[in-house]
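Why this split exists: single-chain examples teach little about how molecules sit against one another. For that reason, every record in the complexes split bundles all components of an assembly together and asks for one structure covering all of them. Below is a record exactly as it appears in the raw files.
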Amino acid sequence: MRNIWDTIIGNRMFFLSLLFVILFVVLSLTVPGFLNLYNLTNMTQYGVELGLLALAEALVILSGGGGIDLSVGSMMSLVAIVIGVFIGRVGLSPSLAIVFGMLAGLAAGLFNGLLVSVGKILPLIVTLAGMYIYRSLALIIAVDPQFGPNPMPVSNFPKSFYFIGQYRIGGIPFQVLFIFVPVLLILHFLLSQTAWGRKLYGVGSNETAAIFSGIDVSRVRLTVYALSGLLSALAAWVITSRIASARPDIGTGYELQAITIAVLGGISIQGGEGTVGGVLLSVAIITMLNNGLQLAGIHQIWQMGALGLVLIGSVLLNQFLIRRRKI
Amino acid sequence: MTNFQRIVRRREFTVLILILVLGAIFSFTTERFLSISNISNLLLQLSGVAITAIGMTMVIITGGIDVSAGSTLGMACVVSGYFLLGGYSPFLALILAVLVGLGIGLVNGTIIAWGGIPPIIATLGMMNLIRALMFQILGGKWISGIPPSVRTIGLGKWLGIPIPMWIAAFLIAIFSYFLSYRPLGRHVYAVGNNPEAARVSGVNLKSTVVFVYALTGALAGFAGLINAARTGIVQTNTGMGFELDVIAAVVLGGTSALGGRGTIIGSLLGAFLVGIIKNGMVLLNVPALSEGLVIGVLIIISVLADIIRARRETR
Amino acid sequence: METIVLECRGISKSFGGVRALKQVNFSLRQGEVHALVGENGAGKSTLIRIISGALLPDQGEIWYQGKKVEITSPRLAQTMGISAVYQDPLIYPYLSVVENIFLGREIKTPRGNIDWSKQEEKAKELFASLNISPHFLRQPMGELSVGLQQLVLIAKAIAYGAQVIIFDEPTAILTEHEAERLFQIIKRLKEQRVGIIYISHRLEEIFQIADRVTIMRDGEVVGDYPLSAINREMIVELMAGKHLVEEIEHGGKKGKEPILAVKNLTKKGKFEDVSFEAFQGEILAFSGLVGSGRTDVAQALFGIISPDSGEIYYQGKKFKAYSPQYAMNQGIAYLPEDRKTQGLFPILSVSYNITISILRQIANHLGIVNAKREREIAEKYIKELNIRTPSLEAKVFNLSGGNQQKVVLAKWLGVNPRVLILDEPTRGIDVAAKAEVHQMIAKLVERGMAVIIISSELPEVLKLADRVIVMHEGKITGVFEGEDIDSTNLVRAATGERMLPGKSD
């Protein structure tokens, strides 16, 4: 009997797939409105934003050295309002505004990354401070002098802006096909088929050996934090397009979700372990959970609460597995 | 090195100077800063931070962190708020608030010490879990209208200084003594300096870790009661962001994020610094939105200064 | 005759098939300074770790103060009265000296508070009994010099009521003045009837302060004498032993010009005025005891640390290793001493570990890895080095020590360097694997590589080396070639005897 448990829990992908199936079945049976094509495809929309941030988090945690990014939600907020302001108040074309948004995200990520890799400050502190800095910047930018001293969301977008967030092709939401899937494939490719990906795993699993093997640890870490910023920017674009509004507080609470999904998906907190596939399954599971809770009329705040439990549970599980491994 | 030189080199001294300088600047640039009402308001608002910073200092000394302090404060507010509304004795409400905080802190500490979970993860998870529970209990509504008669602990003054500040001073004195004279207090430092050496010396690592988180929870609970008594209102998002103020106070006050060193007095000074900056910003009509920016940047500068100083010392 | 305070009877210990201690007998009397000498790998450290509770013996008994005991943890050892003073101290850097002594066993007031004044008094007493001036008691421990830290740890040991104090190469980090001070303290300790185990490779010191000496070799005790009954030559001979080793034949042709020429390389605190040449087609061995600075020299050549002064010439041109990456690209490879923490990625696969340093060979200019090529290279080395692994994807931590080491070796072979520096390449691996690695080294030299091997195992050096450079505490004390390469010469130079022609101290 023990051996069955071992195989199930030991093999992360199998475990997640099982969890996915079980959750799917349970939700279909207990929550009315869940097992519905429209609902399911709708769900994938929310999943994209969450998934992008989770992938960002996964990359950062993979790089080890206490790697974590508490600022992904705030970076998303910042980029969202940047895009909104450029389109809605400055009057730039959506494409240009989006480019600026991406640059803003990249800049934030680089800021984080430089402090971590060159400044050698603990990622926890850097991204904790960063979280508050970007959030504050977002709120400041959101203030429209015409309307008084309070931050205001921006919603006057041209129709052309909504295609990424609201259109579908053959029933499948645009952002899934054209943003999430490509990003997923690219990241999977980067991690598993490129030299850079190899280096990342090395840096995360044994920093000393990485140095002795001739890997430039600082550079690798700088890159992941920059990527995290970029992915957060992508998520900002998608969500702003979907809800047709650029809100400076849109990212609040997303860091918890991102970290939980990454850890549940098999990314070890120590670094150097985990795959994109696991994160994908994990995104699906958490998105389903959120959706199910929402349909069942449970307030959103309980989604966060449940997530807190899942986070602690996943890390406990990871630690348990690591301890059983004999090195 | 003379004793005077030793004192001057310390971070606490720098912070004190900063506070005095800022205080002077604000006194000259605004009329209201030096007024009694403003100062006592300032002290009132930072008392909660100062009290919780006592525990957070110990947590960070051991190399950990607690981002659930805000949710703990909120939950304590909820529980004690109901009690105060229900007409029960404020004293009972106080005990309850502290117990609630203690309970949360114990859970944090246990997960971290026994489960081997990194403190950021454990407290991040708890932060959201507690917030959800708060919502559940409040049922989406507010608590309001707590009668002023039971709110003396938050509104009262003694010798012109708000009572919460007196309480804070009292607790700070007690726990500073604790950290300097009680074995358990010293063990906190030991765990932060060198856990391996501590274990060999016979220090009970797990108990020490559980203790610091439990204490922080209890103190956050206390701060929660003070908050409820002061504002008379409790909402679902009460306490959100509180933990940043506390962490900022501790880090700015000289406690190294890497652990091993730090003082409660330093954190008190840090709380003052954060409080004065916020207060000054309000008086100068700088939008409150910039708070996060200013404090976040300060934290980074502070940590960078630590690192630069450490590098210089090893040369 | 003083009473015996500690006695080891028939202690044996193996690590995964490798015998570290074999039927070791050792006894220590009260008030006696008993020196323990031997080459690296002779078993001194293992014996000490067993006595101090860090390891449990496989066989044998320990008797302490007349009773049979089991020392199951360092904490227990300390409580029993057995304290060790190591080079890498377990200290609390930001806490005061007084606190470092008493933490965990605080002197308390009746109400349970720490009695700081009593602790300070007691500390002053302790220091007075050792004749040390107590002016630094309140300073943070981390601010003290290493020598002073050591003294504090000695005081701590006495505070714990130590009856046995173990010193492991204590003077390695001390200045001459501090060493003298240490000897005075040891005299005081003797007066207090404390038994002292003193490990050192500085034979002059041993003759200065020890009463007895036990010499170990290859895990066994080969001699146990009072100092009056022995002299330096005898000790050296016993340490060295007679090694009947078959020298390995290789067809490598020594290059005419040196591929690597090092001149007056110095790094403060690590090595001084090191000069040597390395040739292609030749195996150059660096012999010496732990802490002699060989690894630091190698790391300076590889870009891990940066020398303070001196010059390096590589392939005839002036050279500076800016980083490991740079050194690698130039053709210099370094296989690190500690394979678990420095050489391998334990949770990653065999194929990963073999190819991680040669990503350029298996990836195109865009950085995309050619999986087929990766497999081929990994398989090639698995075959060539006879690495036993269930598959390419097996995680390296599952492999035996010998196979792990082969994986690390494969990694660096892949880089195809011109100069390959191997730091303790066969440490902790079984005999069969050792032989295979040696064969591989011979093949490499035949292919024209310059191989520098740092080794603390005499048989290995005797077997492989064409030339041997011996280092002692950061300086070169001997260079031997051909017939001159024998155990006695090597040990003499390793223990500090200058055996260089025409050089004075």
